[in-house]
Design brief:
This protein is α/β, with parallel strands linked by helices. It folds into two domains: 132 residues, NAD(P)-binding Rossmann-like Domain (Rossmann fold, 3-Layer(aba) Sandwich); 119 residues, 2-Layer Sandwich (Dihydrodipicolinate Reductase, domain 2). It is 33% helix and 25% strand.
């Protein structure tokens, strides 16, 4: 049963993450309700939504922004502006998973500032952002991330195609990239939003350094963060179990669900 005081959450779009969020909201998150979704194929979306307990409309991005209080963007990076801009123009809150695309759309941050809207970037498939954010209140000397992914999780990345790097038949781990988080966001747009989230929490996309390995020895998407600051030095590793989409870990959707719970919760734990 929906409560009229519940915040309406919109989901754009119904991919791997979007469907997981829809199921969680339909099952019940205190203070929230699934208000609507946006999808490129409306008939396919309606067919999938029929399994939920509540009837949910399928809307355009513009209509989604008008109907809902919070919109979760979990779409291909190319759709970021079309989803986020209407929400911010309405002075509302948007949760952005394609945060790598934000680096070239700083005007959206300016728009949020102008209208009173809010952009939330969830922790996603990473860990330790609370510690990095706290360290950034002092002096961070260096931040490096080492990412190791199964070969299937990196196939088709623009950087590999542009540089003629064929990983389809490698038999041992191969480092395919070393550079900044900003460069990684361009070269691996479907893979490395985590690096951008880390950079936004800490020293920025140019000074956050990243190594990416296509690793034949791993079955999980693995990220190691190494931070040196005047408050603490720390190293953390997370091994994410992939979903049916090898580019996306299961914990990504769970991170968004945790963020949504925090938005409506009377007690909020974490920085």
């Amino acid at each position: 049963m929906r409560n009229q005081k519940d915040l309406k959450v919109g989901i754009a779009v119904l991919g791997t993450v979007g469907r997981t969020l829809a199921k969680a909201l339909d099952a019940g998150i205190p203070g929230l309700q699934l208000g609507a979704v946006a999808a490129r194929d409306h008939s396919k979306a309606h067919a999938w939504l029929s399994q939920l307990d509540e009837t949910v409309p399928v809307l355009s991005f513009e209509a989604l922004a008008k109907e809902c209080d919070i919109v979760v963007e979990c779409a291909p990076a190319a759709l970021l502006g079309s989803i986020v801009e209407p929400v911010l123009r309405a002075g509302k809150t948007v949760v952005v998973l394609s945060c790598g695309a934000l680096l070239n759309r700083t005007d959206l941050i300016d728009l949020a500032r102008e209208t009173g809207g809010h952009i939330h970037v969830p922790t996603g498939a990473l860990l330790g952002l609370d510690a990095v954010i706290a360290a950034a209140e002092g002096k961070i000397k260096s931040v490096r991330m080492i990412t190791r992914k199964p070969v299937a999780g990196l196939l088709g990345a623009p950087y590999l195609i542009q540089n003629n790097i064929d990983i389809s038949e490698i038999t041992e781990p191969l480092r395919v990239f070393s550079g900044s988080a900003r460069e990684a966001a361009v070269g691996f747009p479907a893979n490395l939003n985590v690096a951008v989230a880390l950079s936004l929490a800490g020293v920025g996309p140019e000074d956050t350094k990243l190594d990416i390995w296509a690793d034949t020895t791993v079955t999980r998407n693995t990220h190691t963060i190494v931070v040196d600051s005047d408050a603490a030095g720390f190293q953390m590793t997370i091994e994410n179990i992939p979903t049916g989409n090898p580019k996306t870990g299961r914990i990504t959707a769970q991170s968004v669900i945790a963020l949504l719970r925090k938005i409506a919760a009377p007690l909020r734990v974490g920085t």
